[in-house]
Amino acid sequence: MYTPAPYLAAVNVHVKHSGTQNKVETLFSKTKGFVHQRWVQELVRVGRRTEFGLIVEGIWGYAGHATTYLDDFVFQKCTSDHHVSSCASSEWMCADRDKCVAVYERCDGKRDCTDGSDEMQCLSEYGDCNFDMEDWTTACNWTVDTVDGKPSWTRAKESHSEDTGPPSSHQGRPGTFFLVANSSWLPEGSPAVARSPVFPASHNKCHLRFWYYMKGSLSMDYLRVSMLISGASLPMWQDVGNRGARWLYGHAVVGHSEPFNVVFEAHRGGDAITDIAIDDVSFTSSCSEGGDPTGHPSLCTEEEFLCKDKSMCVPRDFVCDCQADCPDGSDETDCGEPRIRVQSFVSCMDGEHCIPALLLCDGVRDCPDGADEHCGQ
């Protein structure tokens, strides 16, 4: 990389990989303040991946006179014939040693290893449920709330309509069932609520995996996964709207310093073709082990920020990006000194105001505190 002038705000390298709803993850970021009058080599570790593609992004700062040159991209040990010798503690090695997969991808209902070994010799764990048994609530130790005297979630082998819901279970085998919030009889806005058994306290070690189906009209509402802790609900995952005719994979890290339940909550949309279904819910073995949290207990993962009102977790990339994501706006407070954001805005030091990055150090006070003109100080 060669950058002869100091105007580029950031260079980012993202990875986009398949199998996770086109998730994009940032692997490398170099922000404003670097000036290279020579070629500089950068090393980016891609790590274990399914099929992936790289995205290189340049973010401009407060002027347009800089040029950054990139050359000689080399991929090392990325070919399919490369065998791994060891995996990280958070990973599991495939039987053919072709690659490592995340621990939570072991026995999660999808094939991540080339040889499929991650889905072999799988045992049922505490809390798992595929809803195939007629008395599934007893078998899985789950509970379901009622609406108008009927269970809000019900078992089904197929949808009541071609316009909504899945035609079969996630596994697709005869005699298998899924759980559905049936919009043909649920009142509009009514929540269908299903709770897992109680899990012991843990921190950043319990992984929930599940499959869900949200096909229907534009009035489709949302599916939410929360933790129930001493009567308080803490949202951990959510998807909204019509997601098409396919089973989708969901994953969330759950855990707390107190025992908790995992809750699936589906809200009925504006018409009778807004079914929401779930299937093959599973937990990693570490969920039932529990254990005292290490360090300060956190309601969110290390990559997330807990809103001050504890209503939800947001990605840390969303903090101080000049757009409130927390209901209480706490992700945009205490932002400190002005920083250039990917959205080409800067936050003032008062933590309340944002201005376009183009106005930074232009000789005019745009922030109420004038922090945008404290250049080089």
Automatic annotation (TrEMBL):
<dbReference type="InterPro" id="IPR013320">
    <property type="entry name" value="ConA-like_dom_sf"/>
</dbReference>
<keyword id="KW-0449">Lipoprotein</keyword>
<keyword id="KW-0675">Receptor</keyword>
<keyword id="KW-0378">Hydrolase</keyword>
<dbReference type="InterPro" id="IPR036055">
    <property type="entry name" value="LDL_receptor-like_sf"/>
</dbReference>
<dbReference type="InterPro" id="IPR023415">
    <property type="entry name" value="LDLR_class-A_CS"/>
</dbReference>
<dbReference type="InterPro" id="IPR051560">
    <property type="entry name" value="MAM_domain-containing"/>
</dbReference>
<dbReference type="GO" id="GO:0016020">
    <property type="term" value="C:membrane"/>
</dbReference>
<dbReference type="GO" id="GO:0004252">
    <property type="term" value="F:serine-type endopeptidase activity"/>
</dbReference>
<dbReference type="Pfam" id="PF00629">
    <property type="entry name" value="MAM"/>
</dbReference>
<feature type="region of interest" description="Disordered">
    <location>
        <begin position="153"/>
        <end position="173"/>
    </location>
</feature>
<dbReference type="InterPro" id="IPR000998">
    <property type="entry name" value="MAM_dom"/>
</dbReference>
<feature type="disulfide bond">
    <location>
        <begin position="320"/>
        <end position="335"/>
    </location>
</feature>
<dbReference type="InterPro" id="IPR002172">
    <property type="entry name" value="LDrepeatLR_classA_rpt"/>
</dbReference>
<dbReference type="Pfam" id="PF00057">
    <property type="entry name" value="Ldl_recept_a"/>
</dbReference>
<keyword id="KW-1015">Disulfide bond</keyword>
<feature type="disulfide bond">
    <location>
        <begin position="107"/>
        <end position="122"/>
    </location>
</feature>
<feature type="domain" description="MAM">
    <location>
        <begin position="127"/>
        <end position="289"/>
    </location>
</feature>
<protein>
    <submittedName>
        <fullName>Low-density lipoprotein receptor, putative</fullName>
        <ecNumber>3.4.21.9</ecNumber>
    </submittedName>
</protein>
